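Bug: token stream looks shifted between consecutive jobs. Job 1:
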Amino acid sequence: MVTENEFLAEYKLSDYERPSVTADVAAFMIRSGEKTSYRKDPEHKLSLLLIRRGGHPYKGMWALPGGFMQSDETVEECALREIMEETSVRPVSIMPVGIFSQPGRDPRGWIISSAYVSIISEESVKQVACDDASDAQWFNVSFEEEEDGIFRLSLSYEDIVLNAVLAEKSASFGRTMFDIVDSGSLAFDHAAIIAAALMALRSAAKSFETVFDFLPDKFTLSALQKVQETIMNVSMLPANFRRMVSKYVEETGEYLRGDGHRPAMLFRRRKTPVK
């Protein structure tokens, strides 16, 4: 009988065709607009980090930060390494979105992508394009269902507007996946990855799993509500929001002062939600 060591000594991995593995990251940030009045909070925008590809394939097109996994790292470590190499941004958190393995998705060959959604705080942003990225920018995000199962993804930065159309393919285990109808000049299948990442972010935001990562440790309820509304693309009455969020936050005893407003109580996230 062949022992395991003997089997492994004879085993040749090269006898089997193998895919390459990449990690791609949909990194989101909520950006505050310019404050025009002390009586009104500035407008908030959900933004997505994209790079303009500096090399083939899809040279000059916009894509998610990402790259190939190395033999001495996990795919999660690859995702973090790639986004830091290309943008000098360290995500606050990272969450798996899904595996994208459609045959032909990459013209270079058999390449599968492990996709992630990450959250980056506005204060930590420092964009430095390097590696194969010739440019890196934050695009404002709009994602709306135009008709039953058909969604439009719009990404805008200054005079650049990317519009993609996607069809909902499946929804299970809290994840929604999409087929691309029109890629909107986004590289590879990144339109589908972005759409799936947005749905995952919204799903997590419903139970306040992700909203705190967009904010500093201490925050006002007004700021927290703005984050929730921006992610979910909804408006809520302050009283209703406070009732929803009360079991997830606790008072710090400190106040935010200035800007012509009454002092606002600062809160922090509870370690364990109240049941």
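Job 2, same session, no restart:
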Amino acid sequence: YACRATGPNVAKIFSVKKEVSLAAIPATCTNNVIRLLSGAYPQFTAAVDVMETSMNNFGAIFHPAPTLLNSGHIERGQSFEYYLEGITPSIGEMLERLDAERFKIARALGVKAITAREWLEESYGAKGDSIFEAIQNNPAYKGLTAPSGLNTRYIYEDVPCSLVPFSSLGANLGIDTSAINTIIHLANLMTGRNFMEEGRTVEKLGLKDMAPSQIHHLVQTGLVEKKSTFEEEVVA
């Protein structure tokens, strides 16, 4: 849902997504999970595995950067529409950079990836020649206000649990993630935290030096496959 809590046990739903990809760990259980949830949420469709759903996590693109770059307005307590007012053309350009890095990592891992613009069209029917234009053309975002402060999941969840894994996977692949790293570093400076240490890195996830095929085998079956090293498969 595109929604906001309006009080205790109350939420306002602005729009319902047309489709949401889902994967279980291991992926052999995905269809069972979808079968259990389909009565309540018919929008769920099966993804190949959690690498697909994780690398197509667009909260990582749309949440941390606009929140940090609008921190002055947020901390002054000025209510504004998060997407339609908070994502300006220049912030939209930053999101394009973040999304391009995410997409490149996903493709290198053999993940079926879509761009943020494609996701906006698939989920909401919003079209545009840029992320900024597509967001402005998305009526589902009308009325969605910004967080009331910086103590928000847009930073404390999306940075360590989404941007840090992207950065760590990129480093393992030798892919430049300068835009992603910039937002992580900005979050560190503005919160006094070290999200690279706190976050989900390939070392913590047990994926260090794993080849892409080994990672997919692990999340699809729950079993570790002894094969080529990460470096050998990437070079090949």
